[in-house]
Amino acid sequence: MPEQESQHLVLVVEDDDSIATALEFVVGREGHRFARIADGANAVEAIRSMRPRIVLLDVMLPGRSGYEICREVREDAMLGSVRIVIMTAQGSATQQARSMSLGANAFLPKPFELGKLRDIIREQIGPG
């Protein structure tokens, strides 16, 4: 399969540089393209314009919370194919339930193992 056919865009909405670097490493190792936004204020507009396959979305962001972003993306029928993975240091069952009720496809508590992140990316991209 030609390389451009196998690459998907993974958009990271994360304000912590060290976490974003780890995410970029895993995304690149999986053969996908990487883009990053460091605050929540313009995240929905970026998702609309970039149309990523997956959004790795932090909850605690400057400008707007990841929960608000997730809810707005899910309210936009044109973004129905975008997969959302909520990431948070508040990794309780309550936070996971809230994430899923807002329409997230997966939940990743921080700190996370890189292997777990890789597995979630593979699961969310799926075959083809």
How would you sum up this structure in a few lines?
This protein is 44% helix and 20% strand.
Q: Topology, pairings included?
A:
Layout: H1 3-6, E1 9-13, H2 17-29, E2 33-37, H3 43-50, E3 54-58, H4 66-75, E4 83-88, H5 93-101, E5 106-109, H6 114-125
Parallel strand pairs: 1-2, 1-3, 3-4, 4-5
Helix pairs in contact: 2-6
Tell me about this structure:
- It is a single chain.
- Mean pLDDT is 92; it is low at 1-5.
- The longest helix is centred in the first third of the chain and has 13 residues, at 17-29.
- Helix 2 (17-29) crosses helix 6.
- With 128 residues, the chain is of the alpha/beta class.
- The protein is globular, with a radius of gyration of 13 Å.
- The protein is built from six helices and five strands.
- The chain starts with a helix and ends with a helix.
- Strand 1 (9-13), helix 2 (17-29) and strand 2 form a beta-alpha-beta unit.
What is the oligomer described by this structure? single chain
Q: In which range does the helix fraction lie?
A: 40-55%
Rg is 13 Å
Helix and strand run: HEHEHEHEHEH
Please summarize the sheet with the most strands.
Answer: 5 strands, parallel
The shape, in one word, is globular
Q: How many DSSP helices?
A: 6
- Provide the spatial order of strands within the biggest beta sheet: 2-1-3-4-5
**How much beta, percentage-wise?**
15-25%
Structural class: alpha/beta
Global mean pLDDT: 92
